[in-house]
Amino acid sequence: MATGSTLIESLSQTANPTILVCTLLCSLALLLFWIRSAGRSRLPPSPWRLPIIGNLHQLTDLPHKGLYALSQKYGPIMLMRFGSVPFCVISSGELAREVTKTHDAVFSDRAATKASRMLFPGGDDLLFAPENKFWRLTKKLCVSELLNVRRVQSFQTIRVEEVARMVETIRSSNRCEIDLSNLFLQLSSAVFSRVVLGVTGKNDVKGSLSVQGIQAISEISSFEDFVPALSWVDRLTGLHTRLQKTSQSIHAFLDQIIEHRAEILRSGNGGDEAQRSDEKCFVDIILELKQKDMIDLNLTHSDIRSILVDMFIAGLGAYAMIMEWAMTLLAKNPKMMKRVQDEVRGIVGRKSEIHKQDTDRMEYMKCVIKETLRLHAPALTVRQASRAVTVGGFELPAKVTALINIYAIHRDPKAWVRPLEFLPERFMNTSYNFKGQDEVYFPFGMGRRICPGIDLAVAELDYALANVLCWFDWELPEGVAPDDIDMRGTSSVTSRKLLPLRLVPVAIPTPPPST
Length: 515
Fold this sequence. Notes:
The chain contains 20 helices and 9 strands. The chain is an alpha+beta fold. Heme binds at residue 451.
């Protein structure tokens, strides 16, 4: 066979210079094409996409389900474009661990959205700010001062009072059908309003609406987020104006709260309102630490406001969502409802109140919460790469957003037996927890961006769910069978039910208070 040099020499003797030059140029072009193709082959597989919108048309009404379906065809790692923004979709626990553990420092940021830029005009917050010194010190403040175990226990009085109000509301329904989804959202709003701001939502309609507005605005996506060149569409549709007005209203409400609590602290008259250890809200704690120079941060008024908004975004919707789905799944599975109620009532006995030492013993109820979060955790977790990085053997460019599909990972048949079924007992006598230590189960995230409020969330869930299960039997509305319960979710970040859960409570006799 002729070598390359022999072939060129032969051509030079038999062909004119034009043919020779064309041959060399074609060979060079083929070589460059091969090199570029080889480079591209190191990128993750990609579904076909359309101009301008990229892969947006493939997301379906429920993005986590649409991406799960695509991963069955293209594999556990896909490179997609939503508009002009590159996303790497991760659908396996092994790759999720690689992103959030092995390359945690690279994927430590989150891309800001139009809504987040309006909610956090200074760009300094826990959820969307890049990892820098301010972010690390703010997280340290939240973990060590606001969300530690001792602080969570100090909110027990608030927990008891607000759950008692909810129980009384249910009792007063007189065995009529009630909207549990709305009731749980009201409970969540009331608890977080008192814990974070020190205000009672029941007596402050504007405050209650502002608190729920924080959650709503944080879940809005805009054209600007995916196709920056089309940001004018947000103004044309009125979205820009709505986001602006809502953000300004939220800022004004929170500024008023911060100034009110600061005035109480300055006056030294907080004995009845701000200084009781069991009534100190997050605002009080932050202002007191700042006054005493006990934090390594020069927090501005805007910084404090951003921390408060973070607390509501992270906790408000998720708390109500988990309660809603837990009761939905139990109503759909009557045998499991009876089993968990038998456990709760057996532990409470003839006491008229439920205590923390009671909920600590409710193992099956804890399994119900874990299984609920396996099936209905916030579906998607996002991280942005600060530089180019290799994941799963594939090259990812800088600024790509890793989108971890928890929905897919929590349904992986390689990790879970009968993954589509509600089986709380699968968690009995296992080491699964909420700390992000296992690559196949991490409902609150993994790595340095894991939710810092896990202890608070678990305490609220345990106590509220135990009361709902202990003091009431639950019946479906007339003509509705368990198989008729609508299980569709929404496309929101917190994946709430599409249709509210409506059940009929049947109050059981409450033992008289022990003397």
